[in-house]
Specification:
Mean pLDDT of chain B: 82
Radius of gyration of chain B: 24 Å
Largest sheet of chain B: 2 strands, antiparallel
Order of helices and strands of chain B: HHEEHHHHHHHHHHH
Mean pLDDT of chain C: 88
Number of domains of chain B: 2
Low-confidence stretches of chain C: 1-23
Distance between the termini of chain C: 65 Å
Number of helices of chain B: 13
Number of strands of chain C: 15
Strand content of chain C: 5-15%
Number of strands of chain B: 2
Helix content of chain C: 40-55%
Distance between the termini of chain B: 16 Å
Oligomer: heterotrimer
Radius of gyration of chain C: 25 Å
CATH topology of the largest domain in chain C: D-Maltodextrin-Binding Protein, domain 2
Number of domains of chain C: 2
CATH class of the largest domain in chain B: Mainly Alpha
CATH class of the largest domain in chain C: Alpha Beta
Largest interface: A-B, 111 and 115 residues
CATH architecture of the largest domain in chain C: 3-Layer(aba) Sandwich
CATH superfamily of the largest domain in chain B: MetI-like
Largest sheet of chain C: 7 strands, mixed
Shape of chain B: globular
Low-confidence stretches of chain B: 289-296
Strand order of the largest sheet of chain B: 1-2
Chains: A alpha+beta (about 500), B mainly alpha (about 300), C alpha/beta (about 400)
CATH superfamily of the largest domain in chain C: Periplasmic binding protein-like II
CATH topology of the largest domain in chain B: MetI-like fold
């Protein structure tokens, strides 16, 4: 056989083995009950097999692994969150309808003072359950019953004359070992009362609170009220409007979106918050990039001494987790006790009120964000400037040009093209930079006079999050709708930026 | 950068040094505060920069040594901080390599190969990063819950699940790499093709070596991103031994009872692997300079 | 390719017959607790395992409320969760908790105040074990006898100011610490209905009683007793360095004071114009997850191990629980020198206090008051304006 043909058969054999393994896994997943996952896995492995064996799929082979993981772990959660925005998923409507119905049907009310301590007594392989005597009642015991499996059973209790004849009480361990059977056991007293397991040591009378009706409702046994499931609000509701807890998740359509666009509390500070968010992101990108690029160029200058040391020190803000850096800055900027104001008052005699003046608070945020972000830009620019051929600089040196000409005519234009998409994503990242705002200022100083707490340094994400999570418990559905709206806003801005900078055009080589 | 033959060179260098030194001081100051907090006795946030008394108790706690408690007895630290550090390094390294693998191949396809839907895919990759991911956590938990019931090795509380979850975050790296590939001249690759190389060989043996600087950058950024990441790791990891340092250090942060000193020590500890990788990556960055000088 | 595909699917179907059953080891009882206290619970767990054969696993996640809600709603999570009572309104509404029927012995041993916190909508939802209330913490070297009213605090300030010290500091923009002043004369967060629920439309943050407290706070800042921009970290540092004589804080802060070598005492928060200050009371308890498959074992562990005096002792030694809800253990702690007076101080403070309403609308309350207190202390709004703005925000959001 020729080399090419043997390679072909080797390829076919490998793909057959891989296909077999994939199918085995899919069947295993399916039989463990995860149908959706099995289907997804089947689709992915079929696609992969086709991509890597078919001769026509060139680009797909390179794209598939990356795109597949992005689809599963980024796109799918996005779509899931998008879907959540159409439900009333919240702290009060957390569970599914089935879970809630089951919970309500299992609800039981224990009769007060009906608890009886019990012990187990072995009789061969079977057991007798004895209820201890109380002040008013004699000791009762069942006949020998089997506690081997969890089948529901009823056992009658009879008065016991000779307690000692039952034998020694088994230790608590026995009750633990036979818990499933004990849970399914119903004891019938001579008076006709039915007792069920209340704890590891007691049986008690408990009546179910609700009775399931054939029409799907629930009837309260004591009060007699009937509750019907309400698919609009997600609660079992009575005629009078009383709602049973817990509630369940239901589809509410566009309710959250309508609220976002019509509710005054959202739209009142929207303009000012949105403007600040855009300004904050844009200025952060400008400052960090300018500083990062300048440093990358400087640290590329062979004539400069000590560059490795500088590079390391200037990189450090990126090495320490932002969480603690931001908190340290919070202390440093403290008006009366922070080190920054101590230095400023010593040098210039001023003590700026960083946290209470809106403009100063915004300046402080930009300073801290620049400190946090410039090493990232510095590293990126260092990498990207390596793509510029060195002979360009040599040619310009021969022509007698200075460093500024080198920078503005060679470095900047050549680095701008690959940098632009990264600038766009940095803008988007800071648009949603919830962590910085909430840790450093919490959105404060406050905007006076708004009907909901809104800060002058709040960005869109932090303001809307507060509504979704602090107003009245967590409202995940509303927060999902908000996420989607913010995403659409950022995506729109990004598309405009991409079109404007022509970042997606073919490279001109 | 060129060899400038100007006599202003010394002034320029002096100015550059002055600027850099001032910047370094400004950059280092908060960092020094963090170090000082970790060396202060007690768990306080404020105080003088140079602590009046130096106490190694936070470092002993974080490094796992026994220390003298407030009641006068020797206490063994109950939080395995070093283990968390090791977990973080493990996850970040594997995640960095996986990210590198996935994004270099995807970027190659997007930069060099022509196919339908290329521009739309690029736009989609850009837009993908814009979703405020905090709420996607509910979905991530659900995904790995399901995956875990079928394949326990990648379910909740495993490091493999974390690596998988991070592997979706390649969008920005793909754009970075694509941008860099676009600046590399196609002639070398075309020459290789003429010589009979397959696309894979062109990619692996011709393009990648020329792209070493940016590969180092992407690995470094992916590594750092994985080490400091908190939300996804916090959702997927709950068992104390499995935590990464970013998640575990949060255990020092109670609402009113902030263990500043311990937290500062843990923060510095998490900076060590990042600094180490940065120093390693530097070598590749500089090596790239030599390779770049050869081309063209 | 097609032939191999057909062969593959046949093989796959054959493999599908193999069941994925696994042998089941005894399912552990999972408890969520804080890091330091977990050590004590693990020791207790060993005794439980010896008696019942069920292993006990103690996990220490961060951010327990969020994690519990997420896990429990998915049918997972711990069997026993430990948290303060202020979330039970939300968690009961979410169907995350099991109602409990404590035994007569446990009912008798635990303080009625603590039971009040966990009785909600006619059922009991947890087993209380600790009573939290903030108190006045004073530096014994600077203050011999704790002041009983804020007038005395101003007198103390006059005495200490020439030495560059201050009488009192606390994190006053955090409403949790400042509310005792406003609740003293009748301020309330939400009106409590007779059946135990709360009316989210009726708030007393702007009534005359709250105004008295707000004006006191404004006066303290205006007269320089407390600096503007003072936060929790600055308060702690000031106390530890002896620059402040007293603070309003909780027992978690005692550790740092001990480390700084400050001999401190615990007392009730000074009275405001004749009426005692009313801090928020938080009751910590053991809650049972509705999704648990081992309810009886959880009840056994709580009633006979965690809440036994021996159990409370073990937990307390691992991490101080403050004032215990168990009357027996409280009596035991009172007799211990050093610990007794501190615990008595917390209990005394709690007797004056008001239970935190366990309703989710409290989120609105905290957020609105935070803004208002900040504006008030910075002088951007008068006390009247600040409280009215808070009231409007709390009501409008409903």
């Amino acid at each position: 056989m020729s080399v090419a043909a043997s390679n072909l058969w080797l390829g076919r054999a490998i793909s057959a083995v891989v296909g077999l393994a994939a199918l085995y896994v899919v069947m295993g997943v399916y039989s463990s009950g995860n149908t959706l996952l099995a289907v997804v896995l089947l689709a992915v492995s079929a696609l992969a097999l086709w991509a890597y064996t078919s001769p026509r799929t060139g680009a797909l082979r390179y794209l598939l692994p990356g795109i597949a993981t992005a689809m599963v772990f980024v796109i799918f959660p996005m779509l899931y969150t998008f879907g959540l925005g159409f439900t009333n998923y919240s702290a009060r409507n957390l569970l599914s309808f089935e879970q809630v119905t089951q919970q309500l049907r299992e609800e039981s009310l224990r009769q007060p003072d009906s608890e009886r301590a019990f012990t187990l007594h072995a009789q061969g392989t079977q057991w007798r359950v004895q209820l201890a005597a109380t002040a008013t009642q004699p000791a009762l015991a069942t006949a020998a019953i089997s506690l081997a499996n969890a089948e529901p059973q009823t056992a009658t209790l009879q008065a016991v004359e000779d307690v000692a004849a039952l034998g020694e009480a088994a230790p608590l361990r026995a009750a633990v070992d036979h818990l499933p059977a004990l849970r399914a056991l119903r004891l019938q007293s001579p008076e006709g009362a039915v007792l069920t397991l209340a704890s590891l040591r007691e049986f008690a009378q408990a009546l179910p609170l609700y009775e399931a009706r054939p029409d799907g409702g629930l009837q309260d046994r004591i009060a007699g009220t009937v509750y019907q499931p309400d698919a609009v609000e997600g609660f079992y509701t009575s005629q009078a409007g009383e709602q049973l807890q817990p509630g369940y998740r239901v589809n509410v359509g566009w309710r959250h979106y309508a609220r976002i666009f019509s509710d005054g509390r959202f739209s009142e500070p929207f303009a000012s918050v949105f403007v600040w968010t855009v300004v904050f992101s844009a200025l952060t990108v400008v400052f960090t990039t300018a500083l990062g690029l300048l440093l990358a160029v400087l640290l590329n200058w062979e004539a400069l001494e000590g560059r490795p040391a500088y590079r390391l020190v200037l990189f450090l803000p990126y090495a320490v987790p932002g969480f603690i850096s931001i908190l340290v800055f919070k202390g440093l900027f403290n008006q009366n006790l922070g080190e920054i104001n101590l230095i400023l008052s010593g040098l210039f005699g001023i003590k700026p009120a960083w946290f209470s003046d809106p403009f100063l608070a915004k300046t402080m945020l930009l300073i801290v964000n620049t400190w946090l972000g410039f090493p990232y830009m510095m590293v990126l620019c260092s990498g990207l400037t390596k793509s510029i051929p060195a002979d360009l600089y040599e040619a310009s040196a021969v022509a007698g040009a200075g460093p500024w000409v080198n920078f503005s005519r060679i470095t900047l234009p050549l680095i701008l093209k690959p940098m632009t998409p990264l600038l766009i994503s940095a803008f988007a990242f800071n648009f949603n930079n919830f962590v910085l705002i909430s840790l450093l200022t919490g959105g404060l100083p406050d905007q006076l006079g708004t009907s909901l707490p809104a800060g002058t340094t709040d960005i869109l994400v932090s303001y809307t999050w507060r509504i979704a999570f602090q107003d009245s418990g967590q409202q995940f559905g509303l927060a999902s709708a908000i996420s989607t709206v913010i995403f659409l806003i950022v995506a729109a801005i990004t598309l405009v930026q991409m079109r404007f900078t022509r970042v997606n055009d073919e490279p001109r080589t | 950068m060129p060899i400038v033959q100007s006599s202003h060179q010394r002034w320029r260098k002096l100015a550059a040094h002055a600027f850099l030194l001032v910047l370094c001081a400004a950059v280092l100051f908060p960092f020094l505060v963090v170090i000082s907090v970790s060396l202060r006795p007690g768990n306080f946030a404020s105080g003088s920069l140079i602590p009046a008394a130096i106490s190694l108790e936070h470092w002993r706690y974080v490094l796992g040594f026994e220390y003298l408690g407030p009641n006068g007895e020797m206490i063994k630290p109950d939080l395995p901080v070093l283990r968390w550090l090791w977990n973080s390094i493990k996850v970040a390294t594997v995640s960095g390599l996986v990210t590198l693998l996935l994004s270099t191949t995807a970027a190659y396809a997007l930069a060099r190969l022509r196919f339908r839907g290329r521009r739309q895919l690029l736009t989609g990759l850009m837009l993908m990063q814009m979703f405020p991911a905090v709420l996607a956590l509910v979905a991530i938990y659900a995904i790995f819950d399901r995956l875990g019931s079928a394949f326990p090795a990648i379910g909740l509380n495993t490091h493999a699940s974390l690596v998988l979850a991070y592997s979706g975050g390649i969008a920005m790296h793909v754009w970075t790499l694509k941008g860099y590939y676009d600046t590399l001249p196609v002639e070398v690759e075309e020459a290789a093709r003429v010589d009979g190389a397959t696309p894979w060989q062109t990619f692996y043996r011709v393009l990648l070596p020329m792209a070493l600087p940016i590969l180092a950058v992407v690995f470094l950024l992916a590594f750092i991103g994985a080490i400091i990441e908190y939300p996804v790791a916090s959702v997927l990891l709950t068992q104390q031994d499995q935590l990464t340092l970013a998640v575990g250090a949060k255990l020092f942060v109670h609402e009113h009872n902030f263990h500043w000193g311990d937290f500062a020590a843990a923060a510095i500890l998490s900076g060590l692997p990042i600094t180490a990788v940065f120093l390693l990556a530097q070598r590749w960055l500089i090596a790239g300079l030599a390779a770049g000088g050869v081309k063209g | 390719m097609n032939l191999s595909r057909r062969r593959l699917s046949l093989a796959g179907l054959a493999c599908a017959a193999a069941p994925l059953a696994r042998a089941a080891p005894p399912e552990p009882l999972v408890v969520w607790y804080s890091v330091e206290g977990a050590k004590g619970i693990r020791k207790l767990g060993e005794a439980f395992t010896a008696a019942t054969g069920v292993p006990v696993v103690v996990e220490t996640p961060d951010g327990i409320p969020g994690k519990f809600q997420q896990a429990a709603s998915a049918g997972k999570g711990p069997d026993i969760c430990t948290y303060a009572h202020d979330r039970i309104g939300e968690w009961v509404a979410g169907g995350l908790m099991h109602a409990v029927n404590p035994s007569r012995a446990v009912r008798a041993d635990v303080d009625p105040l603590a039971w009040q916190a966990f009785d909600w909508r006619g059922r009991t939802w947890g087993y209380p074990y600790a009573i939290d209330a903030i108190t006045l913490v004073y530096n014994k070297a600077l203050v011999q006898r704790a002041p009983t009213s804020f007038d005395e605090v101003f007198e103390l300030e006059a005495k200490l100011a020439p030495q560059g010290q201050h009488a009192i500091v606390w994190d006053y923009t955090n409403n949790y610490f400042t509310w005792p002043l406003m609740a003293a004369h009748g301020g309330y967060a939400f009106k409590r209905r007779p059946d135990g629920s709360y009316d989210a439309t009726d708030t007393g943050v702007a009534n005359a009683g709250a105004l008295v407290g707000a004006e006191l706070l404004a006066r303290l800042v205006r007269q320089g007793v407390m600096a503007p921009g003072l936060g929790y970290a600055e308060m702690e540092a000031a106390m530890a360095q002896g620059r402040a004589a007293m603070m309003i804080n909780g027992p978690w802060a005692w550790v740092n004071l001990k480390r700084a070598g400050i001999a401190f005492g615990v007392a009730r928060i000074p009275a405001v114009a004749g009426k005692p200050a009313a801090p928020f009371i938080g009751i910590r308890g053991f809650l049972i997850n509705r999704a648990t498959r081992q309810r009886e074992l959880a009840v056994e562990f709580i009633e006979h191990y965690l809440l036994s005096p021996a159990g409370l002792r073990l937990i307390d030694q691992a991490e101080p629980i403050g004032a215990p809800a168990s009357k027996a253990y409280y009596a035991e702690l009172l007799a211990q020198p050093g610990v007794g007076e501190n615990v008595a101080g917390i209990m005394a403070s709690a007797r004056d206090g008001v239970l935190t309403p366990p309703v989710p609308e409290m989120g609105r309350f905290w957020a609105a008051m935070k803004s208002s207190l900040t504006n008030l202390s910075e002088g951007r709004q008068t006390p009247r304006e600040a409280l009215d703005a808070a009231a409007r925000r709390i009501k409008d959001a409903g």
